[in-house]
Amino acid sequence: MSNNSLSEEFPMIIHHLSGCARYSLEQLSLSMNQINGTLPDLSIFSSLKKLYLYGNKLNGEIPKDIKFPPQLEQLDLQSNSLKGVLTDYHFANMSKLYFLELSDNSLLALAFSQNWVPVFPKWLETQNQFQGIDISNAGIADMVPKWFWANLAFREFISMNISYNNLHGIIPNFPTKNIQYSLILGPNQFDGPVPPFLRGSVFLDLPKNQFSDSLSFLCANGTVETLYELDLSSNHFSGKIPDCWSHFKSLTYLDLSQ
User: Fold this and answer.
1) Could you tell me if 179 and 256 lie in one domain?
2) pTM attached to this predicted model
3) Long-range contacts of 216-222 (CB under 8 A, 24+ apart)
């Protein structure tokens, strides 16, 4: 029902659908209408996988005690006037979510005290299906847990930007596979060696961290077909530049400055 002139309140629409469609509805697309009102509890739709509400007039504060459907895979709330706080409580049971769009809701934000420092979002541990994540420039100051890197290592594709925070820790190594990563990890405070499994990236940007050790990870495990851009600038590498650049069949951009 997208791109119409629907102007009813969203809670009333949900009320109409909560009868016969409560257990069977899998996709609800109401984008680009004039629908208003705030978000009701949607967890009653036990089969709902895709919910598109962008480009409406949803408003009001999101209740603290509502939850989203546990089977939800895609949620798009962009370009509304929602406000309030979204917390890990709202996403606690959503292990299948891989697309989340909340932009252009100017009053939808985290509420925190002046001295609060956000930590690494633990609710990501249960999100096993997302293909892209951008939490850059979010003021996060914490050690990135091992489960996050493990979750990354066993995917075939992911685009990730966690730059411009105060994240730290050593990235563990994992067995390599045919992967295509786009990873932007700097500036942050990561240290230790760069694990060889990251060589499978398409874009690997690690500038302005504290990575150390030699550049021997570049020579591990033979030929690399995918790496296109490699930025290792402004770190603490030492020793000789290794002579294994012929391993990289697609490398176009290399930054070893500073």
Assistant:
1) yes
2) 0.61
3) 216/242, 217/193, 218/242, 218/244, 218/245, 218/247, 219/244, 219/247, 220/196, 221/176, 221/196, 222/247
